[in-house]
Each structure stands twice: as structure tokens, then as C-alpha cells.
């Protein structure tokens, strides 16, 4: 299984937001609520990551509830790839 770097996942996240006319801030501390990154956007990002690494990511709803910032998304997806 291959993995994606944080920068690669960040770039995909920027593409998901860009498709909606939104921009990904440079700071990992940026609030998802403030930038308009919703659960549907997370799902799209997770699917893109799965397509790239050719593996299904297994995650649960309680884990998703703790995600509040751009950095949280990057950390979460990094953990899933390395699980």
C-alpha cells in the first residue's frame, strides 16, 4: 500500500474546496467551519485519497467528530493511511 504525504493530501483538500469557489488557508490551525469544509467535503477528500492509494480507509463517526481544523483532517488521514 502506498501512502500520500501531508502536502499531497493538503493539495487534494485545496482542490475539493476550489471546486466550490473556496480557498484553503495556509495555516493548519484554520477552522473547518470558518472555511466551509463540510462532512460531504471530507467524504470527497477521503474518496480521492482512497483512489490514489488504492486502499479503502476505515474510519468511524466518533473519530470524525473530533476533527475541527485543517491540521486535524491531515493528521486523521495520515493515521488512517498508516493503520
Structure description:
- Helix 1 packs across helix 3.
- The protein starts with 5 loop residues before the first helix and ends with a helix.
- The protein has one domain: ACP-like (Non-ribosomal Peptide Synthetase Peptidyl Carrier Protein, Chain A).
- It has 5 helices and no strands.
- By secondary structure, the protein is an all-alpha fold.
- Helix content is about 60%, strand content about 0%.
- The chain is globular, with a radius of gyration of 12 Å.
- The model has no long low-confidence stretch (mean pLDDT about 90).
Short description:
This protein has a single domain, classed as Orthogonal Bundle (Non-ribosomal Peptide Synthetase Peptidyl Carrier Protein, Chain A). The chain is built from 5 helices and no strands. It has helices at 6-18, 32-35, 39-53, 61-65, 70-81.
Amino acid at each position: 500500500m502506498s501512502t500520500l504525504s501531508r502536502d499531497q493530501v493538503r493539495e487534494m483538500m485545496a482542490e475539493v474546496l476550489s471546486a466550490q469557489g473556496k480557498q484553503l488557508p495556509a495555516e493548519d490551525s484554520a477552522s473547518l467551519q470558518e472555511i466551509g469544509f463540510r462532512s460531504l467535503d471530507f467524504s470527497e477528500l477521503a474518496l480521492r485519497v482512497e483512489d490514489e492509494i488504492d486502499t479503502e480507509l476505515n474510519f468511524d463517526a466518533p473519530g470524525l467528530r473530533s476533527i475541527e481544523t485543517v491540521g486535524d483532517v491531515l493528521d486523521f488521514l495520515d493515521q488512517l493511511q498508516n493503520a
